[in-house]
Design a protein that fits this description.
163 residues, alpha+beta, Jelly Rolls, 2 domains, 4-stranded antiparallel sheet, elongated
């Protein structure tokens, strides 16, 4: 039985995708639910290791035009990122240079109380490199085998239109 590049590509792509999902799911993160009254602020703290790319995901289940203001601060109190959120779900990323305690401050700037689901964590990009390379090789093999199959495929064209 001959193993085609298409099958090898599919297997490598599947392995890469599964590895990325497992690594991303097991990363350092905090998930919490918060209810904020008008102009109330809540904080979520996380100790991040080394430097890298962090993220936060904020979801408002009963979204009705609420406005939320979000800030990321490092352990010294410097604001790394700030954003006004006006949608039901928002995922944002930020760069951090060194490890330490990082704080996600969430302020309800709308007129009504708001319930939020918050996820704050580290993407751990360095751990995703090898699975991403495996996924890339798989995709290239898939594209190569599809190109090889379609290259010799021709369709019959009529010589002329008969009216």
């Amino acid at each position: 039985m001959r193993i085609s590049p298409l099958r090898i590509g599919l297997v490598l792509a599947a392995i890469g995708i599964v590895a990325i999902v497992v690594i991303f799911d097991s990363n350092q993160k905090i998930i919490s639910s918060v209810t904020l009254e008008r102009e109330e602020t809540s904080s979520v703290n996380l100790n991040l290791r080394d430097g890298g790319i962090g993220y936060y995901k904020i979801m408002i289940p009963d979204f009705d035009g609420q406005l939320i203001f979000v800030q990321i601060e490092d352990d010294v109190g410097n604001v790394i990122s700030d954003k006004k959120i006006e949608t039901k779900m928002s995922v944002n990323y930020f760069d951090f240079q060194s490890g330490g305690k990082y704080t996600l401050k969430i302020t309800n700037i709308s007129e009504k109380p708001t319930s939020l689901q918050v996820e704050f964590g580290n993407t751990d990009v360095s751990a995703l490199r090898i699975p991403a390379i495996i996924l890339g090789i798989g995709v290239v093999l898939i594209l190569f085998s599809v190109y090889k199959r379609l290259r010799n495929y021709s369709t019959a064209q009529p010589d002329e239109n008969i009216s």
